[in-house]
Amino acid sequence: MSADTAQRTWQGPSAARRREILLGTRTIAIVGASANPARASYFVNRYLTSTSDYTVWLVNPTIDEIDGTPVYPSLSELPGVPDMVDVFRRHDDLPSVLDDTLAVGASTLWLQLGLWHEDVARRAEEAGLSVVMDRCVKIEHARFHGGLHLAGFDTGVIDSRRRSGL
């Protein structure tokens, strides 16, 4: 755990505000996209492209394509301005990702599960960005669009006791 996550003082947006962010988003750039199906960024990309109307752009300087989709080396080389930058990068990389996000003019910085950087959040908000940290776009999208069962979360079991025959 980094020093930044030891004492969390920044308050993230409410569920209602996260829903508004997702409803207002049309384009998402996934920074740290991976071609490895075991990586969270791969699964989020597949989910968003198959179950949403978002235009998803993938960003990774070491990959040219993922499953036939072009991957861009940087945010500045995208074919347009993303509404949201969804980040799958190490904690120490987050300040430079924020700089790139500000430079391209995105309106939301979304840090995936496990990512928390209070200085980055403050800087982003001061620059007028919406900020979400330590939350998964896929899970939030599924939650607000009634699709948690599609993501494997709604098992139909209401209590902790296992039903016979399962």
From TrEMBL:
CoA-binding domain sequence ranges: 22-115
A Pfam match: CoA_binding_2
InterPro entries, per database record: CoA-bd, NAD(P)-bd_dom_sf
SUPFAM superfamilies found in the cross-reference section: NAD(P)-binding Rossmann-fold domains
PANTHER family with a match to the protein in the record: COA-BINDING DOMAIN-CONTAINING PROTEIN, CYTOPLASMIC PROTEIN-RELATED
Name of this chain's protein: CoA-binding domain-containing protein
